[in-house]
Amino acid sequence: MKAKVFIGSKCRENYEYESRKNPHTKKIVSYVAICNKNDAKEALEVAKEAYCKNKKVPLHQRVDWLLDVASKLEEQREDIAKTITDEVGKPIKFSRIEVNRAIETIKLSASAMLNIHGETFDTTATPSGKESLAFYKRESVGVVVAITPFNFPINLVAHKIAPALVAGNSVVLKPTPEAPLTAYKLAKLFIQSRFAPKDSLSLVYGDVEVGSTLVESSIPRVISFTGSVGVGEIILKSAGIKKVALELGGNAGTFIDKNADITDSAKKCAMGAFINSGQVCISLQRIYIHKEVYEKFSKALEEETKKLKVGSPYEEDTFIGPLINEDALDRVKRWVQSAINEGATLVCGNKAEGLSYYPTVLKDVTDSMKIVCEEVFAPIVSLVKVDDFEEARDKINNSLYGLQHSIFTNDLTLAKRAIDEFEAGGVVVNDIPTLRFDIQPYGGVKLSGIGKEGPKYAIEEDYTQIKSVVIF
């Protein structure tokens, strides 16, 4: 099936197409239109013109629009879940979960917009003031460019376009080259809804040429990007004066306290380290364990890891499917071998079948190893023995990233300290840092990015702006 271009509400088909292969079967599963910078420029111009008209669309219509899309997505849940598995190799049970989350994200966006509003303020509060009727209101910002990654190819699209559209903006979407058909199917639901304002959403594909054209243009007022730090830095330098929201990499860590429930924490940590083959920004990468429970936890984690099935993403009980491509697999092999050469001990894993890499646990790692200090984005986790919470905190914070961290403990005082002292955009107590609810404010500090996702918070920070009004 072809992933076609939408320039506004018009579907364009006069393109050359290239194929996308399933990373597990190597069979062709979709075709994507080959776009260039002229397509990007045209989409921006259409979005600009559409915004001038559609910013006046009443809120009830925009809310009905999103709810209609959510309803249609529910009807097509199985088809789109299979499309995700086809394009990126995500195990089918997790593809279904992602579609369900996208439905929730769209509904949350509609609900959030109903509760975002301005307020009055008193202009006689200072001696220099005087009596007036004063308030601020929230307005849409204009054209939004949304650029999304492969690892959550429908929910991360929903997290960008649903809040932006319900807030009254127009959007140009450039999805990941690895999952064009998934994005196309969702965008088509938005564009063909009977409630859709004309030309409010465009869909183009491509890589550097198309992306840089979108980012550098003076038309968009917001660039929302999820991806690598390197690309995020380029966007920030080239975007000019506009809002830029960046959800970048992570290097999530957790601390296992001596009084933690070892069985529960090991089971959860196996999930957090290896779900989606570790291809998650908040994948659990570093586990710091109190010396008194180090061996017990290590053994428990090894046992839980060996329970996870590696295999075809189309089988219902598969937990780990393929990595996205050969480059990802080659990088993982190099990093693990480098760590072993430097003294790390392999507990389990370090085996590949096709593009599927078995979940890998390493001990005796050091802070300078790539598998510890850089983002792995693969099913690898490192275990480190520590004397106490203070040592764990210092090692967890010794990172260029700060997306989410966690702690497993039954000590309330220690949990409160972790909340205050971990340098991250989010802290989880007694669960994995890989935990994310779509309703929460989500985003990191340091090189993990700027801005927040989560419908309410994205609308407030990125997709609306405040206008102050004073009436005499």
Overall CATH architecture of the largest domain = 3-Layer(aba) Sandwich
Class based on secondary structure composition and strand pairing: alpha/beta
CATH fold-level label of the largest domain: Aldehyde Dehydrogenase, Chain A, domain 1
Question: Considering DSSP H and I runs of 4 or more, what fraction of the residues is helical?
Answer: 25-40%
How would you characterize the overall build of this protein?
This protein has 472 residues and is of the alpha/beta class. The protein folds into two domains: 2-248 and 448-471, 3-Layer(aba) Sandwich (Aldehyde Dehydrogenase, Chain A, domain 1); 252-437, Aldehyde Dehydrogenase, Chain A, domain 2, CATH 3.40.309. Helix content is 40%, strand content 22%. It has helices at residues 37-54, 59-75, 77-88, 92-114, 155-166, 180-192, 208-216, 229-238, 262-274, 294-306, 326-341, 370-373, 389-397, 412-421, 455-463, and strands at 2-3, 5-7, 10-12, 17-21, 28-33, 119-120, 133-140, 143-147, 170-174, 201-203, 222-226, 243-247, 252-256, 284-290, 345-348, 352-353, 356-357, 360-363, 380-386, 401-402, 404-408, 426-429, 445-446, 449-450, 464-471. The strands form seven sheets. It has a seven-stranded mixed beta sheet, sandwiched between helices. Helix 4 (92-114) runs parallel beside helix 5. The longest helix has 23 residues, at 92-114. The model has no long low-confidence stretch (mean pLDDT 97).
Highlighted features:
Aldehyde Dehydrogenase, Chain A, domain 2; globular; 2 domains; 40% helix; 15 helices; Aldehyde Dehydrogenase, Chain A, domain 1; alpha/beta
